[in-house]
Specification:
single chain, alpha+beta, Phosphorylase Kinase, domain 1, Transferase(Phosphotransferase), domain 1, 2 domains, 6-stranded antiparallel β-sheet, 10 strands, 18% strand, non-specific serine/threonine protein kinase, ATP binding
């Protein structure tokens, strides 16, 4: 596909919480919306965001019908996000890495760019919301360990995500990987290395990319982002899952640009106070990330060791049993779930 222009800021969490292929269970009686090539799109929506609509669907591959999440983006939007995603997923299919959705097909009709992706489970945003915005410390540490590893995998391939938020981390779909975290929505992803293999320079590119609530301090200024920005953004996601809310972005704003600027101001004012409400290990994690240089490789293993130290102190097991698993088991034991 042709090269694309840099996307503007994505919608924030309160505007795009249903934007990804992870919010609803598969519809029991699907209604066909339309069929394009080997991709059949159902009317039932999974979510809708700033760059398109995601619906349930199926693809026909080798005579087999496979349930998928189908994302459509209107041609009138320029297909910039669609182009980035298709390019990324096409490349990621060759990595054979667990944690990134598989691409099952892409095409276009007269109005839309259409991409069919692996159907995954619920997002961390939805699971957190269903848990009344409270996760246990064990659940947070289990998730954070995997999220750090996902970014390590992504960065090792030369990409940065640039729009990390709870909606873009999802659990696996039905099958052996259902208890593993996956990373989705690569419409803002970008290579951080040039074609010659050297790291891109730290330039003021006058373009905002990301979700204001979770973007790094640097991202608010419009400067070129790097792996450090992804790690800082991930930290804000972890802080949100821990505290249930972030201390910025609660006010009304006249427009999206003003919102992004003002949240950046509030973030600088409230950050130190917020850190004091987090476990000491989390504070250590944040300051370690902050010390990174623009083109420095994040210390992924050190970050995991910091969090695993806290897990060891609390005698947690890395058994992939999350808060929602325990709730389900308790409901079963109490006769609230039919066998």
């Amino acid at each position: 596909m042709n090269s694309v222009i840099k996307p503007t800021e994505s919608n924030d969490a309160n505007q795009s919480q249903n934007a990804n292929q992870n919010q609803d269970i598969t519809p029991t009686v699907p209604r066909v919306y339309k069929t394009v090539g080997n991709i059949t799109i159902h009317r039932e929506k999974i979510g809708q965001g700033g760059f398109g609509v995601v619906r349930h669907g199926v693809v026909l591959v080798g005579g087999n019908i496979i349930p998928v999440a189908v994302k459509t983006e209107r041609v009138t939007r320029g297909l910039r996000s669609f182009t980035r995603e298709v390019k990324f997923y096409t490349e990621a299919n060759n990595w054979n890495e667990i944690g990134f959705p598989k691409l099952f097909g892409c095409t276009m009709d007269e109005k839309h760019g259409i991409v069919a992706m692996e159907l995954l489970g619920p997002s961390l945003y939805k699971l957190h919301h269903d848990s009344k915005n409270h996760f246990t410390l064990k659940t947070i540490l289990l998730l954070a360990d995997q999220m750090i590893s996902l970014l390590e995998k992504l960065h090792s391939r030369g990409y940065i995500h640039r729009d990390l938020k709870p909606e873009n981390f999802v659990m696996g779909g039905e099958g052996p990987n259902s208890d593993l975290v996956h990373l989705i929505d690569f419409g803002h992803c970008q290579k951080y290395v040039e074609d010659d293999g050297f790291h891109k320079r730290h330039l003021n590119i006058q373009s905002i990319s990301g979700t204001a609530l979770f973007m790094s301090m640097n991202a608010h200024t419009g400067y070129q982002q790097s792996r450090k920005d992804d790690m800082e953004s991930l930290f804000f996601v972890i802080a949100y899952l821990t505290l249930g809310i972030l201390p910025w972005g609660r006010n009304e704003y006249s427009n999206q640009a003003d919102r992004t600027f003002q949240i950046g101001v509030e973030k600088r004012q409230e950050l130190e106070k917020m850190l004091k409400n987090l476990p000491e290990a989390f504070q250590k994690l944040y300051y370690s990330i902050c010390r990174l240089g623009f083109d420095e490789t994040p210390k992924y293993e050190n970050y995991r060791k910091i969090l695993r130290g806290l897990s060891g102190e609390a005698h947690f097991k890395y058994d992939y049993k999350y808060q929602w698993n325990e709730t389900f088991e308790n409901d079963q034991n109490n006769g609230l779930v039919q066998q």
